[in-house]
């Protein structure tokens, strides 16, 4: 189910930013799979729904009109390792993907996320902001010192949410993640293990996943290097 908020100008889409323009586009109506007011008929059976937010800024909370309970079996990190009772287990091939442990971290990093950039700097394509060593685990502290929520996304890895404002994360945040919402004034700690390919010249990105914030440079870059290596030089991005 692809969910997207939209605004119409007659028979066409209106993409203008009005209310809360700094957050991004917030539409007046909601479409599901390209349809307004859709519905589906189902029988007396177990139904699995895959929800995809196609909105560029709006944050959703999903539920049922009659407040019935349902089982969350996966998030952006894939199917959960420990699904709810009665829900089929995940394929065996996925069970070896363990969550990183904070006790294994060899380094901690701090990221101050604001509308103007990360750690006081907007994105620069020719700058490498962080260098991490392949095969190591790190703890990153994400602090939102601004006045709106930022959805922090990290390329290359799936991470573990350790705590939110010093408290154990809610159940939906306790398995593998690649994006986590950091509300205004909040601090979120995540543990990441970097087992992907190492290349000192080809960076990965971390950024706010609100589209207009990405466009305005709320992003940074890191490279994964082998033990003892240094960061290289970012390839020329002329024309991008």
Description:
The structure is a single chain. The protein is mainly β and 240 residues long. It has one helix at residues 211-215, and strands at residues 2-6, 8-9, 12-13, 29-32, 35-36, 52-53, 74-75, 78-79, 105-114, 117-118, 130-133, 137-144, 150-154, 159-164, 179-182, 187-193, 204-208, 219-225. Strands 10-9-12-16-14 form a 5-stranded mixed beta sheet, with no helix packed on it. Strands 11-18-17-13-15 form a 5-stranded mixed beta sheet. Strands 5-4-1-6 form a 4-stranded mixed beta sheet, with no helix packed on it.
Distance between the termini: 33 Å
Shape type: globular
| Low-pLDDT runs | none
CATH architecture of the largest domain: Sandwich
Total individual domains: 2
How many β-strand stretches?
18
Helix/strand order? EEEEEEEEEEEEEEEEEHE
Strand order of the largest sheet: 10-9-12-16-14
Fraction of helical residues: under 10%
| Main sheet summary | 5 strands, mixed
Strand content: 25-35%
CATH secondary-structure class of the largest domain: Mainly Beta
- CATH H-level superfamily of the largest domain: Cupredoxins -  blue copper proteins
Number of helices in the DSSP assignment: 1
Key structural traits:
five-stranded mixed sheet; 240 residues; Immunoglobulin-like; 2 domains
Q: Secondary structure elements and their pairing?
A:
Blueprint: E1 2-6, E2 8-9, E3 12-13, E4 29-32, E5 35-36, E6 52-53, E7 74-75, E8 78-79, E9 105-114, E10 117-118, E11 130-133, E12 137-144, E13 150-154, E14 159-164, E15 179-182, E16 187-193, E17 204-208, H1 211-215, E18 219-225
Parallel strand pairs: 1-6, 9-12, 11-18
Antiparallel strand pairs: 1-4, 2-3, 4-5, 7-8, 9-10, 12-16, 13-15, 13-17, 14-16, 17-18
């Amino acid at each position: 189910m692809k969910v997207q908020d939209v605004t119409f100008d007659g028979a066409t889409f209106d993409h203008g930013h009005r209310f809360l323009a700094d957050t991004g586009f917030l539409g007046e109506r909601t479409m599901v799979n390209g349809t307004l007011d859709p519905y589906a008929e189902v029988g007396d059976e177990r139904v699995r729904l895959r929800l995809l937010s196609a909105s560029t800024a709006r944050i959703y909370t999903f539920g049922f009109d009659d407040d019935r309970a349902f089982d969350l079996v996966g998030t952006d990190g894939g199917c959960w390792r420990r699904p709810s009772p009665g829900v089929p287990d995940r394929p065996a091939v996925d069970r070896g993907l363990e969550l990183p442990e904070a006790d294994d971290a060899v380094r901690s990093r701090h990221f101050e996320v604001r509308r103007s950039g990360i750690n006081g700097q907007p994105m620069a394509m020719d700058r490498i902001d962080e260098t991490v060593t392949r095969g190591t685990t790190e703890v990153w502290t994400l602090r939102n010192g601004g006045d709106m929520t930022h959805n922090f996304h990290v390329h290359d890895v799936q991470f573990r949410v350790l705590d939110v404002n010093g408290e154990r994360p809610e159940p939906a945040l306790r398995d593998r993640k690649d994006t986590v919402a950091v509300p205004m004034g909040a601090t979120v700690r995540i543990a990441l293990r970097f087992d992907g390919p190492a290349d000192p010249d080809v960076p990965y990105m971390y950024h706010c996943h609100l589209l207009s914030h990405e466009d305005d440079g709320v992003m940074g870059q890191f490279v994964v290097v082998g033990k003892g290596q240094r960061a290289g030089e970012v390839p020329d991005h002329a024309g991008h």
